[in-house]
Amino acid sequence: MSELDSIDLKMLRILQREGRIATTDLADQVGLSATPCARRLKRLEDDGYIRGYRAVLDPKRVGCGLQAFINIRLGDHAEKTVAAFQSALLRRQDVVAVYAITGSSDFLIHVMAADLDALSEFTTRTLLRMPGIRDTQSSIVLSVLKAETAVPLA
Amino acid sequence: MSELDSIDLKMLRILQREGRIATTDLADQVGLSATPCARRLKRLEDDGYIRGYRAVLDPKRVGCGLQAFINIRLGDHAEKTVAAFQSALLRRQDVVAVYAITGSSDFLIHVMAADLDALSEFTTRTLLRMPGIRDTQSSIVLSVLKAETAVPLA
DNA sequence: AGTGAAAAAGGTTCCGA
DNA sequence: TCGGAACCTTTTTCACT
Fold it and tell me: PANTHER family attached here (chains A, B) (predicted)?
């Protein structure tokens, strides 16, 4: 479970931008031949540095024109309530992220929907009917100036 | 700019999970031979449905143990101030996302840092010294229950 | 850990349906 | 638009440094 050397970091930086790059090209870019590059890549995957690879879609292009962040405060923090609330959220495809946070609310969720109608339907029909919710506060995304999946690597 | 048929959608769904899948395997999974599958994939890329491919790293594993969301309210909405503020944020690697939002604040940003020290340094040394900022409100992420890059595809 | 060559697997192009 | 064959590239394996 050794450390990452500068070549590993270089590889990770490149792979965060070009997830489908051929290992031969990756090898060129980090100054290695194909064999050790493939070995390192496998190690980075096996040791859990790389979780997986994803195609990044253009949300608007595929019919998801609206995004929102919703702060949620629970009224009841009983373990059972919290667990039920969480698993209900996690099951939904349109809830793309769920964070437990500090501050004035308990959870921050990131929702994607086709349009305002779909979003308000989610909020009123689904979210507000979940047990244990005290209040919610929605922030609709007007524009996405940046949305990296990339983790900063010093 | 034609529509996406059910095979295209299937391909996109698979690619959101397995961004590095071989096109022959993708072809098998959608019931096509390699040639038309590769052609469709190229079209999805060229027409902007697929923005790119990314390796997804484990943040903790690569030294980014702390995430936070920060709501930012500007005091001065002059175009120049807003533009300067935005470009300063966009330049920073540790600011992984920037959204302009509705509601009580103007921007929501997603920050990744090694630890609390690094985060508080960012807030006090960088963020609060930016011109035009009226106030900020940080929510530190206690746990990530879900963080999909995937866009929901009906 | 890295290299280079050979075998296997995957990707691309062209043509016919 | 699809499928198949030929051709080319990439990946993997292996012997060696």
Answer: LEUCINE-RESPONSIVE REGULATORY PROTEIN, TRANSCRIPTIONAL REGULATORY PROTEIN
CATH code for residues A6-46: 1.10.10.10
Contacts of B142 in chain A (CB under 8 A): 99-102
What is the distance in angstroms measured between the alpha-carbon CA of A25 and the sugar C1' of D10?
10
Determine what percent of chain A is predicted with pLDDT higher than 70.
99
How close A154 gets to chain B, by Cα (Å)? 9
How close, in Å, is residue B113 to chain A by CA atoms? 8
Q: DSSP string spanning A67-118?
A: EEEEEEEES---HHHHHHHHHHHHH-SSEEEEEEESSS-SEEEEEEESSHHH
Q: What does pLDDT average to over chain B?
A: 95
Tell whether domain A60-140 is in CATH 3.30.70.270.
Answer: no
User: Which nucleotides in chain C have some atom under 7 angstroms from a protein Cβ?
Assistant: 1-5, 9-14
pLDDT at B48: 97
The whole-number Å distance from A59's CA to D2's C1' is 29
